[in-house]
User: What shape does this take?
Amino acid sequence: MAESDKNEIFMSPAPHVVTPVKTQTLMLDVIIALLPLTAYGIYLFSIPALVRIIVAVLCCVGFETFFRLICNLDVRVKDLSAVITGLLLALVIPPNLPIWMLILGCFFAVVIGKEFFGGLGANVFNPALVGRAFMFASFSGAMTSWIQPGNSFFDAMSTATPLKLINAKEGVAISASEIAKTLNLSSATDLYTQLILGNHAGCIGETSILLILLGFAYLFFKKVIDWRTPVTMMATAVAITAIGGIDPILTLTSGGLAFGAVFMATDYVTSPVTPKGKFLFGAGCGLITGLIRLFSGMPEGVMYSILIMNAVVPFLNKLIPVKYGYVKPPKKNKEAAK
Assistant: This one.
């Protein structure tokens, strides 16, 4: 830096570097946390899952690179953010989703959801969820078509997920025992076991609550994420749905609640920066998720709850600001005051 530049202040959009930890290191930790879920998804759904994971990652990296090249911007493949977007997007889709739909979703996630806002650090909404929301709105039939684990793409039969069965009786929650019978399981305990392990129909990477919690533990131990948002989100959703008569264990272990809370709601760019803001953000996500599961025609609400709360984040950061450089004055000594 030149001598004349030393007193200049450089402004740039978040995230700002406040520690020696690089963006690439944080992204790599997230990839490591997602690897068990990725491997298990491939184990459950075989080649179809593997193909969609590869396609999603390559397309997101390719779209980001191409867009930045034509806009004369620096290429940021090495920061791994596009890899994360592709991997997350692949893990929250059905394993039999047509490839061309996934490619459109990747384009929408990276180009519309991130690069149009200015790239990494400037996007308002979680890019992977933007891509999923686009596919859900455009191809709702394909995005809600599920197959049982172990079936190949060619002999797959459409089936219901445990979450879909929760509100199967015209909006009235049914018990775990009834769901177990519908899925040809002997008891509610078998259903709980299946949900915890993840051996059931669902998105490629959302089925195993056990592996999701393992990823949470890893990211928390590495200080990549804060516990406030995911724990508050899950607790609030469980409480709201429990009031509506839904089994708390079913709420926590079915659908994308745990996955969204751990890997989507904790995104640095689209979540609050203050501890109180994280609590409010998580509570808002959990509340909206619970209300959608109870009163909406669709059983899942995690995606929309996080996207809605993403829009509130700038207001949360202003409502509960951190005054950098401000030191609270010491309390006056009563004796000295006399």
